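Our consortium's second objective concerns turning raw sequence data into structural hypotheses that experimental partners can test. To show how far this objective has progressed, the report includes one record in full. It was chosen at random from the queue rather than selected for favorable results. The single chain below, 179 residues long, was entered without modification.
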Amino acid sequence: MHFFSQAFTYEHPWSHVVIGMWHKYPNPKCSHVISIDVIDRSVDPKTGIIRTERVLGCKQKTPAWIVKLFGGSEDAFVREISFVDPSTQNATITSVNLSLSQFATCFERIQYSPMSQTRTSFSQTAEVQARMAVWRAAADGLERWLVQRFEQNAQLGKSAFTDVLRKLWEERQLQGVHP
């Protein structure tokens, strides 16, 4: 199993970051995400927690050795479930790959929490595990490649989301609206 993690602070209020979550895609910096389908959205009447389930369609260049060994294509799908709790001001997103999950899984967890009225903490972890105990060397190679790809996409995602927040913030400033 291989891991990835990162944490940083957005210089935006939590409410603004949560609004930005829904505007992240489509995004030219994250062109590998080609579709987003909302499967379910509900609000718990007791807690007010908003639960959203989506499927993201992605297209990425996959190394030839992975396609040869496991089959498949450059098309991949990811299941994402988010929980936004307005009362505690916490947002949690989990995602897991649906494509080729019989060979490898990537479980991601993102957390947004307020640090102050104008700052929001972001933490992201990913666990990547190949499911090929017999071919440990191939499993290690696959896990390393998946973590590298995840890290590249995470950096693109950070840059893209920063742009989304900046754009939303500037639009609100121009309109005289405060979060």
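The partners drew two points from this record. The CA atoms of residues 146 and 152 lie 10 Å apart. The chain has three helices and seven strands. Both points have been shared with the crystallography group to help prioritize constructs.
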